[in-house]
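Hi support team,

I submitted a single chain yesterday and got back a structure, but I'm not sure I'm reading the token output correctly. Could someone confirm the output below corresponds to the sequence I sent? I've pasted both exactly as they appear in my results page.

Thanks,
R.
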Amino acid sequence: MTTASATTARIAACPHCGRSARLDASNPWRPFCSERCKLIDLGAWFSEARSIPVGEASDPLLSPTQQMAEDRES
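Hi R., thanks for writing in. Yes, this is the structure output for that exact sequence:
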């Protein structure tokens, strides 16, 4: 006897095109619907069309106390 959860695949919208995409092991490009959408997204990251926003970079050689002092000055 199989349960409903074992036979029901999780489906979500492809992040690139919005088509339905399976979120299980049967879809090697998950969460994308196809290899094409996956490669288009990867190309956007490589071309820096997409990026993760970062705050102002601090000097990694400063101690935490020195960094706090600089933060207070600015």
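A quick pointer for reading it: The CA atoms of residues 42 and 72 lie 39 Å apart. Let us know if anything else looks off.

Best,
Support desk
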